[in-house]
C-alpha cells in the first residue's frame, strides 16, 4: 500500500511541475510559480547512503545559490539522521510529516456538522467561492498576493478534466467555509490542501468534508484514501479519531538562502 501511496504522490506533483530525473534525486520545478516551494524542490530517492544524502544536500545548496534562488527545499520519504542535519553548513527548518490512510468505506461511520453542504467545484460559481475561501484560509501565513497566485495556479489543474484532481467546497448556510482537494489515482485517493476557516473549526465541518470525500472515493472503487499531516499538528488527532492510521513518514528540509 505504501508503494501505491508514493506512486500517487508522484502522480500529484507531476500535474503541477516538470522534472529532471537523476540517479539519486528528482528535481521538480514549476516555471509558472517558481517561488512556490511545494512545486519546486529536490526529492531524494530511497536507498541512498547517509554520506550520499549529505553530499546531495550540499550539492543542491551550491546549485541553488548559484541560481541566486531564495530557497532550497529537500524532500524524502524517510527519516534523515540528526547527525547529518547538524553537520550541514546551514541549519534548515525540519518538518516531519506522517502518511495516514483509511479505507473509504469507514467514512460511513463519521458524523459531522448536519448543516454542512459539500460541493464539487464544477461550476464557475463554486470554483470562485472555493478560491475565495482558500485565500481567506491561507493569506495570513503566505501573504494575500501569493495566496491569490497560488490558488490561480492550482485552478489551472482543477479545470483540466483529465487531471484527476478536483476541488471540493464546504458551505454553512450558503457561505463557503472550507475547501479540500481530492485526487483519484488508480485505487488510491489523495486528500490535499484541507482548510476550514478558523471561525468554523471544531464544529464538525472538517469531519463532514472527510465523510463526503471518502464517500466519493468509495463510489469510484478506491481501496485506500490517504493524506499527509504534520506529525505534531493538532489536526492529526482529528484524523486519528476519524479512523486514519499512520503508514509512513516524509521529511522536509527547508533552507532560506536570501538571509
Short description, anyone?
This protein is of the alpha+beta class.
Defining key terms:
single chain; 259 residues; Aminopeptidase
Question: Which SSEs are present, and which pair or pack?
Answer:
Layout: H1 2-13, E1 18-21, E2 25-29, E3 41-44, H2 50-66, E4 71-76, H3 82-86, E5 93-102, E6 116-120, H4 124-142, H5 144-158, E7 165-172, E8 175-185, E9 188-196, H6 205-219, E10 224-230, H7 235-242, E11 245-256
Parallel strand pairs: 3-4, 9-10
Antiparallel strand pairs: 1-2, 2-3, 4-11, 5-10, 5-11, 6-7, 7-8, 8-9
Describe what you observe in this structure:
There is one protein chain. The chain has helices at 2-13, 50-66, 82-86, 124-142, 144-158, 205-219, 235-242, and strands spanning 18-21, 25-29, 41-44, 71-76, 93-102, 116-120, 165-172, 175-185, 188-196, 224-230, 245-256. The protein contains 7 helices and 11 strands. With 259 residues, the protein is an alpha+beta fold. The protein folds into 2 domains: 2-98 and 251-256; 104-222, Aminopeptidase (3-Layer(aba) Sandwich). A hairpin with a 2-residue loop joins β8 and β9. α4 packs antiparallel against α5 (144-158). The protein has an 11-stranded mixed sheet, with helices on both faces. The mean pLDDT is 95.
